[in-house]
Design goal:
Layout lengths: L16 H14 L5 H14 L1 H8 L3 H8 L7 H11 L9
Length: 96
């Protein structure tokens, strides 16, 4: 008997805006402070909604958005803000 495994992809489970917001919020909570987890979450959410359309709506090139949100990416804050606005998400500060 052979078992077959597939790679987990969070993007396939992000169906509603509420799920996307909760996922990003959880990643903000768990991020180590380097932004890696938040960047990965934005990548997952953008792929779930359609990277090409997100890039177009944000005024960015699709390839550059993939690169910025990829595992080796280091997006500028303006890129993060543009993507979040297009995704219908916003940053919110609270005290800890």
């Amino acid at each position: 008997m052979t078992e077959e495994f597939t790679r987990f992809d969070a993007a396939t489970y992000l169906k509603t805006p509420e799920e996307m917001a909760a996922y990003l919020d959880a990643c903000f909570e768990e991020d180590a402070g380097d932004g890696v987890l938040v960047r990965a979450a934005l990548n997952d959410i953008a792929r779930a909604k359609g990277m090409t359309q997100i890039a177009r709506d944000a005024g960015l090139g699709r390839e550059s958005l993939y690169k910025a949100l990829g595992s080796a990416g280091n997006p500028e804050f303006t890129t993060i803000m543009k993507v979040m606005k297009v995704l219908g998400l916003r940053l919110h500060a609270t005290t800890i």
